[in-house]
Write a structure and sequence with these properties.
The protein is α/β, with parallel strands linked by helices. It has 5 helices and 8 strands. The longest helix is centred in the N-terminal third of the chain and has 17 residues.
């Protein structure tokens, strides 16, 4: 796929159970990161556009991703290289108040592959925004992760929350594929 960028969203230490002191562990983050790494490796081999997005809360006493903390750093397995774009965001949507769209447009990107966390927050937001901006979106669902969620006393396990959001994205915003299917497209 020509004119394609990989967008890695919030694969930061605080989400990893293997990171000592993680403040917001998600479901199977290591598995999702391993799949994201497979796609990242292919992008590096093909010298394709890569954008790493990292979140820091711009509030006092954040629950996780505190500015300049070890927990807010991108996990070591996915450390950006010097020639790869990096974006710091303070909102759920990686396009809001960042130069993400400018980076993509400057590289004539028409397709985006999205991986990372959390499925029902930042992955959902960036995918819908990218689609609204006219990019053809692909989400590697097994390279994304989330947590359990609760609303109105209804508890939803992470796997169910993830599936619900992937189904919604697939319905109208993106092609939702496995890592292997994404790799075959490349």
């Amino acid at each position: 796929m020509e004119n394609t960028a990989l967008i890695l969203i919030d694969l930061q230490n605080d989400y990893f159970g293997s990171f000592e002191g993680a403040k917001w562990q998600l479901n199977e983050t290591e598995k999702a990161a391993s799949n994201a790494l497979k796609i990242l490796t292919k992008f590096r081999e093909k010298n394709m556009k890569i954008v790493h997005v990292r979140h820091e809360f711009a509030i006092e006493n954040p629950p996780f991703f505190a500015p300049n903390s070890q927990g807010a750093k991108i996990h070591d397995t996915l450390t950006p290289k010097e020639n790869e774009s990096q974006i710091l965001k303070h909102n759920v949507n990686a396009f809001k108040d960042t130069n993400l769209k400018e980076i993509l447009d400057d590289s004539n990107i028409t397709n985006v592959i999205i991986v990372g966390a959390m499925s029902y927050m930042c992955i959902d937001a960036v995918t819908r925004a990218a689609s609204d901006f006219g990019y053809k979106c692909f989400v590697a669902h097994d390279a994304c992760t989330t947590s359990d969620v609760e609303f109105n006393s209804i508890k939803v396990e992470a796997a169910i929350a993830h599936a619900a959001f992937m189904a919604a994205l697939q319905f109208a915003y993106a092609k939702v594929e496995t890592t292997n299917e994404i790799l075959e497209l490349l």
